[in-house]
Amino acid sequence: QYIVYVSTCLILASVAAYLVCYVEPLAAGSGIPEIKCYLNGVDIPGVCDLRTLFSKVLGVLFSVSAGLPCGKEGPMIHSGAIVGASSAACGLHNSWMRGQQVELEMRDFVTCGACAGV
């Protein structure tokens, strides 16, 4: 039984490592420093991308399931910020949101998403 438990944990941790190393390296870490930089005006390409959200959510899921001592609170903040940015970007196609696509309003959406992630 011990071998099965250890091999299951290794497989789950390997999937999480693969997602971070090869699919989206921006999904590594908590994501809070990247969101703070974004809110201060630093343009980091791909920090609020859906690919980053996919990799971060699945990476946290697999790493916590593997029993690794990592928290899920920081990645939830980053995931919430990505959802906020995505909801603001989806508003480009709606006529009632076209005037809201200024950078300041985009940062407001990211801030609201980060707060919802808490």
From TrEMBL:
SUPFAM superfamilies: Clc chloride channel. It holds the Pfam family Voltage_CLC. It comes from the Eukaryota. It is a multi-pass membrane protein. GO terms for cellular component: membrane. Keywords: CBS domain, Membrane, Repeat, Transmembrane, Transmembrane helix. It is found in: Membrane. One of its GO terms (molecular function) is chloride transmembrane transporter activity. This is Chloride channel protein.
